[in-house]
């Protein structure tokens, strides 16, 4: 089992890994803010609801810190919601299943329902 580039055909219980920016809270700033750093997130898909994906964080770590002070990554076990388009922008990688034919059958079953 290894990592492969995700194509957007997500199935519940897929494990994804991506790098995302950590942004400051926008409190009455007039100028455009810049990201404080980047974090690498590994999460499992809990559910898919239309264009939104609910993910449970398995691991998160700081990859880049621009501001120098301590940044807080997502906590392990927390649930985050992401739009599919937002996830695909960050070039996620998907952990291959030990039985990819079962995953393909689940995808076919899901597309037949829609």
Secondary structure tally: strands: 6
Overall 3D shape: elongated
What is the helical fraction, as a range of percent? Answer: 10-25%
Instruction: Catalogue the unreliable spans.
Output: none
Total of helices: 2
Largest sheet: 6 strands, antiparallel
- Our Rg estimate from Cα atoms comes to 16 Å
Number of domains: 1
Strand order of the largest sheet: 1-6-2-3-4-5
What is the N-to-C succession of helices and strands?
A: EEEEEHEH
Tell me the distance between the termini: 29 Å
| Overall average pLDDT | 88
Instruction: Tell me the structural class.
Output: alpha+beta
Strand content: 35-45%
Description:
It is elongated and about 50 Å long. About 20% of the residues lie in helices and about 40% in strands. The chain has one domain. It has helices at about 85-90, 100-114; strands at about 5, 15-20, 35-50, 50-65, 80-85, 95. It has about 110 residues and is of the alpha+beta class. The two termini are about 30 Å apart. The protein has a 6-stranded antiparallel sheet with strand order 1-6-2-3-4-5. The relative contact order is 0.26.
How do the helices and strands line up, and which of them pair or pack?
Blueprint: E1 3-5, E2 15-22, E3 37-49, E4 52-65, E5 79-83, H1 84-89, E6 93-95, H2 100-113
Record keyword descriptors for this entry.
114 residues, alpha+beta, six-stranded antiparallel beta sheet, 2 helices, 40% strand, elongated
